[in-house]
């Protein structure tokens, strides 16, 4: 699973630094603490004058600031690549994106409410008194706008497809060889109170101020070694200096650092190459809104991490990597001023890595693996997976890629839609994730009951998944009688017993590792256990907060069988064809979600995991996919009553 890090490290430094930025200790405490160091310290020599800029804002130590290249029009993509990207030279283009509809429209909160009011975004909360309780939750734009002026909250999500209508591809990036490197379009929105640590990003950053201003202080990569980053072992790429009051006695080398200083106004864009340290402060507004495009180019921090390199070694490596890239680019396709939405539709939605904001990936991995179970077959299965079935292909594809990238390793498919095909294609094109790293669940539809048909069905699944074994095969139902199973009257079906025996054969031949059944009655399960030669590993059935299946789960527990839920979110089709979940909108769940500052869906998942139930929620909303994955990390112990409330008082049938 070590390979997963390559997905994450890319923007992790950026995001973590931002987080740390908001959760910096209270400034007055820092100031008084440091003041006493200076006055009571070993500076016995009263005549000694403190270095220039000591205990002042970061950057005031220099006599003269250096100047960035500032243009009033875009260079061509070819020139930009040659003179800036490849050479690691930052660039500011003033006013160049004033024509973006966003610049004109987003300062109007009524417009934001009207157009995006009901969309969900990731919002960070500041808790100055308790760093452990920094947290993230999803909020609609309306909810955010209702409170962001009064609270230390920071929308740090990503540009939604609807919002991307108000943006276009900046001309100098409008070349396939550049823009296709984009990995994330982020939206940064607050009431102009934020200020980051001095940090470095793991990606190229194309940052546009939409409303309000931002002051950027940049430090060249070769001076990174003066920022004492190697002393700071929380995370690579973050300097321990307090940017509001730099202690130059404690961090003397900071005095050697060159400073570039620029303030961005509406419609200005800055290009910050990977490796340039920076400190950023919002000013002006509210609303203070910016949009940034992160791009992978050399990704050298990612490649140099976590090997034990000093900042100096890392910088040398990054410079060499940049020099090794082609001197020029050729654009096959130009997308200058292409509406961002059109780009996203054409090339697939980019990958928000929101979860990184909440916890580091090692914790995420550890807790994800903590919620896993050893099946009766002896194989381990994660308890939290991602369901691909029942979604339109154009949405299921980006959703499944995103889930894989987010670290989901259990995937539930359905032979009746394109989910096997989609998963197979994604896995085949993701060499970093090895086949044995993922656990794939496949089903046999009841119309294929009987030996031959079952074998053919599994064979088809193997082909569609482009794999030579399946981790778990479930017989989807013991018969076609259930209403939703579409079967032909005369399709010569066999029995579920024949199917089971066929699966046992395939198990013996190494094509299937574990066997299970779905929607079987307890009497059928007893019969099955009676004759099964290969153990029954998994029983799947409908399960959620309302429908507890207590007896069935007890039966499974007594027989060492793992219970897997379907229908966890309680989504129902309404008469007019819309899908709704009375469970998800229940006020008790809402209360718990607010308590833990997350989504109702995440709470529901965590509640099921706590009951030892394996879940594979499905979603095409990238935010929800990220948040669902966050369920194992929820600190439910913080308010045990909320979980207990759901167990004891949520209306349910046993
Ligand atoms: C940067 O520029 C701003 C605006 O011109 C100025 O107020 C500030 O002192 C400069 N230097 C630093 C380190 O902030
Ligand atoms: C911050 O954390 C403390 C301690 O856990 C808690 O009492 C307080 O309510 C939290 N504040 C906010 C704004 O969440
Ligand atoms: C300051 O930098 C010099 C080299 O540039 C290095 O030898 C020294 O250890 C650094 N000091 C600290 C406190 O990091
Ligand atoms: C569909 O029906 C549900 C109730 O069954 C109702 O709440 C919802 O507003 C309806 N949606 C539309 C688009 O008519
Ligand atoms: C879940 O499984 C663990 C380990 O087998 C057990 O200790 C715990 O009691 C189970 N919880 C429930 C709610 O069944």
UniProtKB/TrEMBL annotation:
Signal sequence extent: none
The keyword Transmembrane is assigned to this record: yes
Domain JmjC: 158-312
SMART domains xrefs: JmjC
Keywords for this protein: Membrane, Transmembrane, Transmembrane helix
InterPro entries from the UniProt entry: AKR, Aldo/ket_reductase_CS, Cupin_8, JmjC_dom, NAD(P)_OxRdtase_dom_sf, NADP_OxRdtase_dom
TM annotation in the entry: 7-23
Pfam families, alphabetized: Aldo_ket_red (PF00248), Cupin_8 (PF13621)
One of the record's GO molecular function terms: oxidoreductase activity
The protein's name: Uncharacterized protein LOC106181661
Organism the protein comes from: Lingula anatina
Gene behind the chain: LOC106181661
